[in-house]
Design brief:
Blueprint: H1 4-16, H2 30-37, E1 51-56, H3 63-70, E2 75-81, H4 84-96, E3 107-112, H5 118-122, E4 127-133, H6 135-140, H7 146-159, E5 160-170, H8 174-184, E6 191-203, E7 206-217
Parallel strand pairs: 1-2, 1-4, 2-3, 4-5
Antiparallel strand pairs: 5-7, 6-7
Helix pairs in contact: 1-4
Length: 220
C-alpha cells in the first residue's frame, strides 16, 4: 500500500469496471466529516486571500472538491496523490462535470505528488489546512511504509503555517495513534506536534477518530 504501482493498478481496475466515473471513498465521504473540517474554513479575516488547503493522498475521493464547493471563504484546494492515474481520472471528471465553488475566488487543482516530498513542493509555512483521510493509515499498515508515514508527518509540520492544522481521519485507537504522532512529530531543532482527538463515530461497526495536529517549534 506504500507503492505507487499498487495505487495505479487499483484505480485503473476500478475505472475499467464501469463506463461512468464514480468517486471511491476510503472510510467515508465528506458528509461524515464536514463538521470537523469546515470550522477551520470560517475565518472572514481571510476574505482577501486564499486559504491553502491540501487533500493529501486524495485518490478519486470527492472530499477535496466538496471542500471547494462548500467553503464560504476563498480557498485554493489542492488534491494531491502519488498516482497519476487517480489525478487524471479526477481531472477528466471535473472537466466533464464542472463544480461551482461557494466563493467565486476559490480554486481547485489536482496534482501528482509524493507526499514524502511536501516540503520540496510547498516550502515552509505555506499551508493552512491538510486533510489526511486514510493516507497515513495505508502507510502504517504497509510493511515498508512506517518510515514513510513518519516522514510525511514531519513534512506536514514543516509546510503548515503556525496557525495551520493537520486533520488525520483514522480507525486507529487513540492509545496507539496519539503516542505515534507525538513521538514521530518531534524533530530536534525543528517542529513538534500538539495533538488532540475527537471521535467521529461508528460506521459499519468500526469506530473512527479525527486527530487534530498543530505544529509547535521545538525549544532549543
Amino acid at each position: 500500500m506504500d507503492k505507487k504501482a499498487t495505487w495505479d493498478r487499483l484505480y485503473t481496475e476500478n475505472s475499467s469496471r464501469t463506463t461512468s466515473f464514480k468517486n471511491f471513498e476510503w472510510f467515508f465521504g465528506f458528509d461524515s466529516v464536514q463538521d470537523f473540517i469546515m470550522p477551520f474554513l470560517q475565518d472572514e479575516s481571510h476574505s482577501e486571500s486564499l486559504l491553502q488547503v491540501l487533500d493529501m493522498g486524495c485518490g478519486t475521493s470527492a472530499l477535496g472538491p466538496c471542500i471547494y464547493r462548500h467553503s464560504v471563504v476563498p480557498v485554493q484546494v489542492t488534491c494531491a496523490d502519488i498516482s497519476p492515474v487517480a489525478v487524471r481520472l479526477m481531472q477528466e471528471h471535473v472537466r466533464a462535470k464542472a463544480i461551482n465553488p461557494h466563493h467565486p475566488s476559490s480554486l481547485l487543482e489536482f496534482l501528482e505528488l509524493d507526499c514524502t516530498q511536501l516540503h520540496g513542493h510547498y516550502g515552509c509555512s505555506s499551508l493552512d489546512l491538510i486533510v489526511d483521510k486514510g493516507t497515513t493509515d495505508a502507510l502504517l499498515r504497509s510493511r515498508e511504509g512506517r518510515g514513510k508515514a513518519s516522514q510525511v508527518l514531519r513534512q506536514c509540520l514543516k509546510v503548515l503555517r503556525s496557525s495551520g492544522s493537520l486533520l488525520q481521519f483514522s480507525d486507529e485507537d487513540p492509545d496507539a495513534r496519539l503516542l505515534w504522532l507525538e513521538t514521530e512529530g518531534q524533530e530536534p531543532g525543528g517542529m513538534a506536534a500538539d495533538v488532540r482527538v475527537q471521535e467521529v463515530g461508528e460506521l459499519r461497526g468500526v469506530c473512527y477518530y479525527c486527530y487534530h495536529v498543530t505544529p509547535r517549534p521545538v525549544e532549543q
